[in-house]
Amino acid sequence: MSLLTKCPVCGTELSVEAVEKLLRGGRHMATIKVQAGVCHKCGEMVFDADTVERFEVLRKRLKNDEVADLTPLGNAYSA
Questions:
Q1: ∠3-8-10 over CA atoms, to 5°?
Q2: 8 lies in a domain?
Q3: Which domain covers residue 20, as residue numbers?
Q4: Confidence (pLDDT) at 2
Q5: What pLDDT does residue 28 have?
Q6: Strand, coil or helix: what is 65?
Q7: What is the reported pTM?
Q8: Phi and psi dihedrals of 10, rounded to 5?
Q9: Residue 2 located in a structural domain
Q10: Which residues of the chain have pLDDT under 70?
Q11: What confidence score (pLDDT) does residue 1 get?
């Protein structure tokens, strides 16, 4: 994983951590666990190019209702 070492927002040192990212596409949402550079001062998360590409692929699948092989986590509601 090739990440920046300093936060692009505040300049603080980043630490590489496992994070959970929520992605939306169309009427669907999914969570994905990935590695990110995390700034403990401002909260910024930095992802490498391969991870960003995975996000885009998953968003496209969600938008196109291609969710049959994803694990359901429950229901979400809006009031």
A1: 130
A2: no
A3: 15-63
A4: 56
A5: 92
A6: coil
A7: 0.83
A8: -120, -10
A9: no
A10: 1-3
A11: 53
